[in-house]
Specification:
alpha+beta, two-stranded antiparallel sheet, single chain, 8 strands, six-stranded antiparallel β-sheet
Length: 413
């Protein structure tokens, strides 16, 4: 039993016969990796597990394994390290974790399959790392910066673990935290649909440009859309007809080409918009709000909620906010410079995925839009902040109609 961590000089092929041969005693040359830690603490942790088998080993070992092997991520990314630890360090524990039989077989080759070989072997892929008995524990603890409670929760559900750590975003710590927070306790299909939506959104956004909250927003949209789709498949009505308010309010908002925004739960809210193409940019024309519920001609009464939802979904699609214009009928007759909403110097263009507080951005847009084209007396009066707006956008690929549908409905189920 080695007193320090080793690695194979050459990787063992990921074939059952090659893995079994090493377990049966075939000699393989090893070397000391950079910064190789001693293994006394690791072996002591195994002793503390007693006769534990199956998932109890994961729960009991994830913290002491990570603490006992304080190696760099560069070393931990080397599959030869994990191959050595499983094949030469403590193969009996690997056997107990996955097959619970005791003692291990006298001839490993008699029982080996591709799946079993993967638990001892390791390859330089996400799938290879997530299958190795020890690599998976070390990396999940690393992803949560040593928050071992989170690590134990993530490792407790194999489907959840695979949804996070068998995809590239799982290596980005804010994404790992967001996935655990939003997906834990969800069913298999909602989880699958949510990560599918996240991967789709990452096709038009840089992962590292998104913080944890932005990723959580994307995942919530995916989960809600999946659940709405399942209700629809069972014939449960969850939406109201297009053109009417989703909260029991008759509204005159929207036009023949406008779409109503649907909230994360699938219900239609009273907020209407349309997308128009203008060369390399897109223009999102957002209807103004007016009247009140129960009064004459109420219009776009969910103005604030609708704008928050649209800004969050635009962030998920990688949109860049280039310009904001007041878009009321009288203002459209004025030069563009007189319609422009002014922000602090250097604020625009704004990558929406970088925004950590969507509600604050929405509030700022409304407050500043209220001042455009108004005289001093009108500015001093209250109200008038829920104006028709045109958001000029770039960075979003697709047709105007397709983008409009995606923004209105959220992620597809």
């Amino acid at each position: 039993m080695s007193s320090e961590l080793r690695r194979f000089v050459s990787s063992v092929p990921q074939r059952p016969d090659a893995i079994a041969a090493v377990l049966n005693g075939r000699s393989v040359e090893t070397e000391r990796p950079p910064g190789s830690p001693p293994l006394e603490e690791f072996y002591a942790a195994i002793t503390q597990l007693g006769a534990a088998t199956g998932p109890a080993i994961d729960q009991g070992l994830v913290e002491p394994l990570h603490r006992a092997l304080p190696m760099s991520q560069r070393v931990a990314a080397d599959p030869r390290v994990w191959q050595w630890l499983a094949l030469k360090g403590c193969p009996e524990l690997v056997w107990r974790r996955w097959w619970r039989a005791s003692p291990p077989p006298s001839d490993w080759g008699d029982t080996f399959t591709v799946d079993r070989a993967a638990r001892f072997g390791c390859s330089a892929t996400l799938n290879g790392v997530s299958r190795n008995t020890f690599a998976r524990l070390w990396w999940v603890a690393e992803a949560f910066d040593g928050d071992y409670d989170r690590a134990r929760r993530a490792i407790a559900n194999q489907d959840l673990f695979q949804a996070i750590f068998e995809r590239g975003y799982g290596l980005y710590k804010p994404a790992a935290r967001a996935c655990l927070a939003e997906l834990e306790g969800e069913g298999e299909k909602p989880v699958r649909d949510a990560v599918k939506w996240l991967q789709f959104c990452l096709g038009t956004a840089t992962l590292q440009a998104l913080d944890e909250e932005a990723i959580r927003v994307i995942l919530r949209e995916g989960l809600q859309a999946s659940k709405v789709a399942q209700l629809g498949a069972r014939g449960v009505g969850t939406t109201t007809p297009v053109g009417g308010g989703g909260r029991g309010k008759a509204s005159s908002g929207g036009g023949p080409r406008a779409s109503a925004v649907r909230a994360a739960d699938g219900s239609q809210i009273d907020a209407h918009f349309r997308i128009e193409a203008d060369g390399p940019t897109l223009e999102l024309r957002y209807e103004s709000s007016g009247g009140r519920s129960g009064g004459p001609n109420p219009r776009n009464l969910d103005y604030r909620d609708g704008m928050n939802i649209l800004l969050a979904r635009l962030a998920g699609l990688g949109a860049i906010l280039e310009e904001v214009l007041v878009d009321s009928e009288p203002m459209r007759k004025k030069p563009r410079v007189e319609r422009r909403v002014h922000f602090e110097r250097g604020r625009l263009p704004l990558v929406l995925a970088d925004v950590t507080d969507i509600d604050a951005l929405r509030s700022s847009i409304m407050t500043r839009a209220r001042m455009v084209g108004q005289d001093a007396d009108r500015r001093a009066q209250g109200g008038g902040s829920s104006r028709a707006l045109c958001l000029v956008l770039s960075g979003v690929s697709g047709t105007a109609s397709g983008i409009q549908e995606a923004l209105a409905l959220g992620p597809a189920g």
